[in-house]
Specification:
This protein is an alpha/beta fold. The protein contains seven helices and 15 strands. The protein folds into three domains: 82 residues, OB fold (Dihydrolipoamide Acetyltransferase, E2P), CATH 2.40.50.140; 160 residues, P-loop containing nucleotide triphosphate hydrolases (Rossmann fold, 3-Layer(aba) Sandwich); 66 residues, Probable gtpase engc, domain 3 (Ribonucleotide Reductase Protein R1, domain 1), CATH 1.10.40.50.
């Protein structure tokens, strides 16, 4: 009898062998100490995770995440995850809390789709640029989906879209409720595993329902007093409404902390900056007031969007402030 080999090259599927009594599955949801997996026959199965896989704290943490390829076996009538395949990539954020920690949202992705709204709530460049920077740092292609185009004031959609297209990102201006622009985005997601990330209330669930009719995700509403959305997704879910369409729905976020990117590395996470990096007069240029700054010159000439450059400076300042307390503790010998 042929079985799956967990030493297969990641991302290319397991090889066939007669050595191991295991079979492979795709993780579509994770809940505490168990997960839901999709087996090769297309059946959804709940599986527990072997303690040695979880680690010393007996918690899944980042050990098993949505998008992982795992090997499971049956034991006393239950399915148990025995091993996790190496990941070809993963998309992370800084976990909530005062102490820095990584939270892996999903793995083995083909693209990240930033879902933002143009109105109700209004477009937030800060979150958009954080998500795109994290995708760049992770080596994962990204695209931008600007929802609620029907509610935006004239010119707003084009103003936002121009900045991101100039940075090299595909941009979709759409209205999930009416279906405008949805088919183009669906085509761009076909044959790609897409992670959908966005603020609460931007219409991500509505968009997913439009991309994959029949999944019936609960659609949230924006609080009329605060202008903020409600969470309608409580955990990441990998949806496969068609054989060539995989969409990972994630809970709407209020904030997105970068992981693995420091103030000095941030400029590399802005793709449109790269042609100009290293061309400043001073090698340690801060891109603030120094003469001969190539980035500021590119902004003035239109090579870099002023909106994106100002967003970069603001985000870099935030990262520097985040590092300051940690540096102080390290200088005192504290951990």
């Amino acid at each position: 009898m042929l079985h799956r080999d967990p030493s297969a090259e990641p991302g290319r599927g397991p090889r066939l062998t007669s050595a191991l009594p295991l079979h492979d599955a795709l993780v579509v949801r994770v809940d505490f100490g168990s997960c839901v997996v999709l087996d090769p026959d297309g059946e959804l199965i709940e599986a527990t995770v072997r303690g040695r896989v979880m680690g010393p704290k007996k918690a899944l943490g980042n050990t098993v995440v949505v998008g992982d390829r795992v090997w499971i076996e049956e034991e006393a009538g239950r399915r148990v995850v025995e091993n996790v395949a190496p990941r070809r990539n993963q998309f992370s954020r800084r976990a909530a809390g005062n102490e820095p920690a990584e939270q892996v949202l999903a793995a083995n992705l083909d693209q990240v789709v930033l879902v933002a709204s143009l109105a109700h709530p209004e477009f937030k460049a800060g979150l958009a640029d954080r998500v795109l920077a994290q995708a760049e740092h992770s080596g994962i292609p990204a695209r931008v989906a600007l929802n609620k185009a029907d509610l935006a004031e004239a010119g707003v959609a084009e103003d936002v879209a121009v900045a991101y297209r100039a940075a090299g990102y595909p941009v979709h201006v759409l209205c999930a409720r009416s279906g405008e622009g949805v088919e183009e985005l669906r085509h761009s997601c076909q044959s790609r595993r897409s992670l959908m990330v966005g603020h609460s209330g931007v219409g991500k669930s509505t968009l997913l329902n439009a991309l994959a009719p029949g999944i019936d995700l609960i659609e949230g509403r924006v609080n009329p007093k605060t202008g903020k959305g409600r969470h309608t997704t409580t955990a990441a879910w990998l949806l496969r409404p068609a054989p060539d369409l995989e969409l990972i729905d994630t809970p709407g976020v209020r904030a997105f902390g970068l992981w693995g990117i420091g103030p000095r590395e941030l400029e590399q996470a802005y793709a449109e900056f790269r042609p100009f990096l290293g061309a400043c007069r001073f090698s340690d240029c801060s891109h603030l007031r120094e003469p001969g700054c190539a980035l500021r010159a590119a902004v003035e000439s239109g090579g870099i969007s002023r909106r994106r450059f100002e967003s970069y400076l603001k985000l870099r300042d935030e990262l520097e402030q985040e590092q300051s307390p940690q540096r102080g503790r390290e200088a005192r010998g504290e951990r």
